[in-house]
Amino acid sequence: MTDIFLSKINSTKIIPSIRQGDRRILSRCISWIENEHADYLELLQSLPADYSTRKVIGITGAPGAGKSTLIDVLIGHLISEHKKIAVICVDPSSPFHFGALLGDRIRMNKWFNHEDVFIRSLASRGNLGGLNPKVIEITDLLKAADFDYIIIETVGVGQNEVEVAAIADTTIVVLTPGSGDDIQTMKAGLMEIADIFVVNKSDHEQTDNLVKNLQGILIQDQQPIPVLKTIATQGEGVRELWNQIKIDLSDETKNAHKPELLAAEAYQLIQYQRMKDLSKEDLSKDIRELIQHEQFNLYQLISKYT
Amino acid sequence: MTDIFLSKINSTKIIPSIRQGDRRILSRCISWIENEHADYLELLQSLPADYSTRKVIGITGAPGAGKSTLIDVLIGHLISEHKKIAVICVDPSSPFHFGALLGDRIRMNKWFNHEDVFIRSLASRGNLGGLNPKVIEITDLLKAADFDYIIIETVGVGQNEVEVAAIADTTIVVLTPGSGDDIQTMKAGLMEIADIFVVNKSDHEQTDNLVKNLQGILIQDQQPIPVLKTIATQGEGVRELWNQIKIDLSDETKNAHKPELLAAEAYQLIQYQRMKDLSKEDLSKDIRELIQHEQFNLYQLISKYT
After folding, report:
1. In this predicted structure, what is the pLDDT of residue B72?
2. Which residues pair with A61 in a beta bridge?
3. What distance in Å separates the CA atoms of residue A246 and residue A240, rounded to the nearest whole number?
4. Taking CB atoms and an 8 Å cutoff, what residues of chain A touch B265?
5. Position A157 confidence tier, pLDDT thresholds 50, 70, 90
């Protein structure tokens, strides 16, 4: 325990330590962000202006699609290339997540103790879309560290996950054959955010069917998005996936949109700060009471909060 | 021109006039809300506590699905039952919309001059999700008038329309055969919001195919939602549709969720009021400049706005 932890956050010492690879300070800072420590925004304000060059890879898909196994193999591949990787897991069903079944945790545990791999699970906050600002903030902190790549794993089931994908430089949507994933993917709005589709568990007999359906929809939408087949449990197709990720990450045309993407992030963070005093549950309680006393007027209610 | 228009909004005179059916004052008040007249929130705060009992029918679907023709026939049906109807049109492609082609406008024009029908188009604001608060506010004002039903027409293509549907007591999603509408409907998130599906233009040869696909998805989701066939241009199936709408509107189990729905509306309106000083375009401009001068830090930027 060093002095910098004892009192107020001392950003001038912390950020250089994180940049030099101090994982303990990094972990502590992530907790500060998660728990909204009094000085956490000050810490983030001290990030150097050049911190945002690190590449972020988003991986999303339904629970059980094999995202964690795929990330597991990807980590192995990157470690063999002497890269350092951070993984943020915002999927509560993931084996990387501390709340997961013990068996799964043990299976993935090797990376928790590898010095070039940093894995952190984030608790989902449910309402307020409260998770996303934390993911943005923690990702930015990780960019100030010494990682070559940052991987964000999310469950692709709803709007929150789609928004998280906006902070990734490349987004991979993982599907499995025989699961009705093509329909679910469309319903969750994942067609629009995918830079690469992965059909995992591609030894399943329904594989060609899913690939065909997917390509049919992509052609209809005139979106030339690559569809790759993998069998993550056997490491099959993962090298090809990594090559495709590198091609996508090096696409310069994407950089032109950077200010708009950052503006969208800024907007979301400002909205979070301005709205975090308010919960729909409290409003709902107020409204029940007002209705009961026959005094409900929506605009009188909102005037108390604006 | 009466005195109440000359100075400050005089709510004690205006609301009773609207309740008694004064369409000119109603129109003026809607413009006040649209343009955020200095006193418009005060006007809404003076709505009586019992104003929210009027039923709202949401009708959504892709451009060209026949929503307006369907509403046209529905209005005819309701007029024959001596009902008064208000229609809010937030679909810029609709013939009810003033920006639409002249030919279409003339076709629908009969209702513009009918004393028991009030039609108002709302301009879409694009960013900020800026349209929805206005739709909520104007719908609430219309509830204070003398209408039996309020119909909101939206284009079902994105998140905004899904949110608008949350203020409707019953939501009808209109599809057309042979248009890939089943796929688009899933992608736009319209499966979840539909209380009733209408397959319009059901003399098309692909009708049974669309109905079958739709029912397949509904069975998979375990959603027992009625699918009705209409040919709006011939008035076919519209009586059956109205009967289904009445069944859905009288479903008492829906009222249990009323406080939560109102809380969601309140939250959205508060967020709108707290965020309306801010635009993503301005943020994007700021960010471009900061990046150019190598001084960009997201958290320093947002601290200026929180």
Report:
1. 92
2. A155, A174
3. 10
4. 298
5. low
In this structure, is residue B136 part of a structural domain?
Answer: yes
The whole-angstrom separation of Cα B180 and Cα B178 is 6
A219 interfacial to chain B (CB closer than 8 Å): no
A195 touches chain B (CB under 8 A): no
Q: For residue A196, how many other CB atoms are within 10 A of its CB?
A: 20
CATH assignment of the domain containing B249: 3.40.50.300
Same domain, A22 and A141: no
Q: What ipTM was predicted for this assembly?
A: 0.83
Residue of A nearest to B265 (CA): A298
Q: Which chain B residue has its CA at the smallest distance from A290's CA?
A: B49
Are both A297 and A265 inside the same structural domain? no
Whether B100 and B220 share a structural domain? yes
- Give chain B's residues under pLDDT 70: 1-9, 51-52, 91-109, 123-131, 156-164, 187-188
- Average pLDDT (A93-104) is 48
The C-alpha torsion from B281 through B284 and B286 to B288, rounded to 10°, is -140
Interface of A with B in 258-297 (CB under 8 A): 258-260, 262-267, 269-271, 273-275, 278, 280-281, 283-284, 287-288, 291, 294-297
Q: With an 8 Å Cβ cutoff, are B273 and A306 in contact?
A: yes
Same domain, yes or no, for A161 and A287? no
Window 98-127 of A, Cβ < 8 Å to B: none
Contact A66, A174 (CB under 8 A): yes
Contacts B48 to A, Cβ<8 Å? 297
- Asked if residue B24 and residue B123 are part of one domain, the reply reads no
A199: pLDDT strictly greater than 80: yes
Q: A306–B266: do the CB atoms touch at under 8 Å?
A: no
Residue B300 lies in a domain: no
Neighbours of A5 (CB within 10 A): 12
Same domain, B82 and B1: no
> What is the residue range of B27's domain?
1-46
Provide the domain count of chain B: 2
pTM score: 0.82
- What residues pair up with A171 in beta bridges, in sequence order? A58
Same domain (yes/no): B2, B92: no
Query: Which chain A residue lies closest to B127 (C-alpha atoms)?
Result: A264
Same domain for A105 and A249? yes
Residue B103 domain-assigned (yes or no): yes
